[in-house]
Amino acid sequence: YDKARVERVLGDDRDLGNALSSLEGRQYPGYKDLMGSWEFRGPGGELRFTLMVDKVQSDPFAAPSRIRVRIPAGVAGFPAEALSTALRRTAVADFVLRRLV
Question: 54 in helix, strand or coil?
């Protein structure tokens, strides 16, 4: 995990789409070019979420890729008290994850 590399913003959703298209037919090592952050913005330019590619699978038998999504608190819409302690933040994270899977 290379925190500096992952925190680096590589582009927006269109740039990510172009990067994915350019990988068509390439070998697994080429996918490492996706490592970093990709910002998804709304119609007014406001940040909606950031997709962070932490680790990319190096071959079909390697450990899986690891990604995160960071959503600004104002966009997520959770009340401030729901995020006021570590325990509550863990509960919110658990809730969100269960809704996704």
Answer: strand
